[in-house]
Design brief:
By secondary structure, the chain is mainly α. It has 17 helices and three strands. The protein has two domains: 229 residues, Citrate Synthase, domain 1 (Orthogonal Bundle); 98 residues, Orthogonal Bundle (Cytochrome p450-Terp, domain 2), CATH 1.10.230. Strand 2 and strand 3 form a beta hairpin. Helix 8 packs across helix 16. Bound molecules: s-citryldethia Coenzyme A. S-citryldethia Coenzyme A binds next to helix 15.
């Protein structure tokens, strides 16, 4: 079979078959294992949703209880991981810290038994359990404090907020944070998931798979956009400056952070839910100065770019929710990673079930049969350019 059309960014090219999630980008539909995201946000929890994504079915009461119990048991970090983290510079980005810690887990759990269901289960549990602890620990350590130990009496979301803020969260705040995790858990074959799948296809260990996905999520065109949105709202500063900001973006052809999506040509259904969650939080805990700017920006972008299908994506309103929950701006993307670990693990498991190493082709555009020029006869690239021998 030959397929010669080159599409930058592999737009529209199926790279796998998957039964994990479904997106209809024209109608704004997202389903995990066939269940609508709105229904999961309303009725499920992040851990139940993770089970659904990874094992393909909603767990029974007993199965869920056992899964939650295992995760509670594995939340603690080995002291050597904590010691390693102490050596990280405080000024380093928490996504880099998380990537290093995820990869380091592979040093401790080095047995690689990809055909053993117990190994798969343990890896799933360890990663879901330890990643939030790593994110919270780095936050405290960079402030010069000892990390807070996880609390077994708190559920997944509440425990993370407790470890981060050193106090038990308000129940509504914890509930809303859990919904945020569910919303971010999975999204078909996005860049970081693709990265996880490519890494998985080499049959490396799951810690390397998750580390490579974390590295991919970090960029501002992907998960890193949630923190960029806050910087953008900061820069805009007030509602009356929204139009001028957009004029500048259009003039410079720069992207408006938190807008646009390869698949969605309407408002991302997760952005709609996140906006509602932000409003619930503002009602209980007071508003956010940036919210009005965000709403005005959404309206102005829709007027200018709606016909091109540019609408808010998942990263647009999430930061406003996280700010209200007391999460520092540079932890927004690590929080995305905590949630997306579920989806990455589901794709890791699916990839292993029917694995073939990813090895696409390329369209070569370089020269052929070029002579090897001895070093003493070579000219610098600048000289060659001046002589018109190479194009700049
Ligand atoms: C996530 O894939 C996933 O599922 C990802 C994700 C997940 O859950 O995993 O949903 C999470 O990554 C959300 C996206 C976060 N990123 C941003 O918010 C950064 C800003 N957005 C864009 O850079 C962009 O929209 C992307 C990266 C999200 C999508 O890029 P594409 O599909 O390659 O689109 P493109 O850059 O080629 O743009 C197509 C057109 C261009 O106009 P034309 O040249 O055709 O005239 O749309 C315009 C773009 O200029 N456009 C934008 C825009 N996004 C697209 N114009 C202004 N602002 C934007 N944000």
């Amino acid at each position: 079979m030959t397929f010669c059309e080159y599409r930058p960014g592999l737009e529209g090219i199926p790279a796998t078959q998957s039964s994990i999630s479904f997106v209809d980008g024209q109608r704004g539909i997202l389903e995990y294992r066939g269940i609508g995201i709105e229904e999961l946000a309303l009725n499920s929890t992040f851990l139940e949703t993770s089970y659904l994504l990874i094992w393909g079915n909603l767990p029974s009461k007993e199965e869920l209880a056992e899964f939650e119990h295992e995760i509670r048991y594995h939340r603690r970090l080995k002291y050597r991981i904590r010691d390693m983290m102490k050596c990280f510079p405080e000024s380093g980005h928490p996504m880099d810290a998380l990537q290093a810690c995820a990869a380091a887990l592979g040093l401790f759990y080095s047995r690689r038994a990809l055909d053993d269901p117990d190994y798969i289960r343990n890896a799933v549990v360890r990663l879901l359990a330890k990643i939030p602890t790593m994110v919270a620990a780095f936050q405290l350590m960079r402030k010069g404090n000892d990390p807070v130990q996880p609390r077994d009496d708190l559920d997944y979301a509440a425990n993370f907020l407790y470890m981060l803020n050193e106090q038990e969260p308000d129940p509504l705040a914890a509930h809303i944070f859990d919904i945020c995790l569910t919303l971010h858990a999975e999204h078909t074959i996005n860049a970081s998931t693709f990265s996880a799948m490519v890494t998985a296809s080499t049959l490396t260990d799951p810690y390397g798979v998750i580390a490579s996905a974390v590295g991919t999520l970090a960029g501002p065109l992907h998960g890193g956009a949630n923190e960029e949105v806050i910087f953008m709202l900061e820069e805009i500063g007030s509602i009356d400056k929204v139009e001028a900001y957009l004029d500048k973006c259009m003039q410079n052809k720069s992207k408006i952070m938190g807008f646009g999506h390869r698949v969605y040509k309407v408002k991302d259904p997760r952005a709609t839910i996140l906006q509602e969650l932000a409003e619930q939080l503002f009602e209980k805990f007071g508003g956010d100065e940036y919210y009005e700017i965000a709403v005005a920006l959404e309206k102005a972008v829709e007027e200018r770019l709606g016909q091109k299908g540019i609408y808010p994506n998942v990263d647009f309103y999430s930061g406003l929710v996280y700010r209200k929950l007391g999460i520092p701006t540079d932890l927004f993307t690590p929080v995305f990673a905590i949630a997306r670990t579920a989806g990455w693990l589901a794709h890791w498991k699916e990839q292993l079930a029917e694995n073939r190493i990813f090895r696409p082709t390329q369209i070569y555009t370089g020269s052929r049969n070029a002579p090897y020029v001895p070093i003493e006869k070579r000219q610098s690239a600048q000289d060659q350019e001046l002589l018109g021998l190479v194009s700049g």
